[in-house]
Design a protein that fits this description.
There is one protein chain. By secondary structure, this protein is mainly alpha-helical. Helix content is 82%, strand content 0%. The longest helix has 23 residues, at 11-33. The protein starts with a helix and ends with a helix. 8% of the residues are buried.
Length: 60
């Protein structure tokens, strides 16, 4: 928390961004493995949301 207040990026924040990106990648991997169009679309939406969230955390 102190590093965020000082304008820096803490280790925990970097891990969170990497975790979000990893989850997004895993969603995309699962989307490629399924043949159910609704599931593919939902997994891709989740992946985009995770990537968006990771991008927001990087800018803080």
């Amino acid at each position: 928390m102190a590093s965020r207040m000082a304008g820096g990026h803490g280790i925990a924040e970097g891990v969170s961004v990497e975790r979000l990106r990893d989850l997004a990648r895993r969603c995309r991997d699962l989307a490629e493995l399924t043949a159910v169009p609704e599931v593919v679309r939902e997994l891709e939406r989740i992946a985009r949301a995770l990537d968006d969230e990771a991008g927001l955390h990087e800018g803080e």
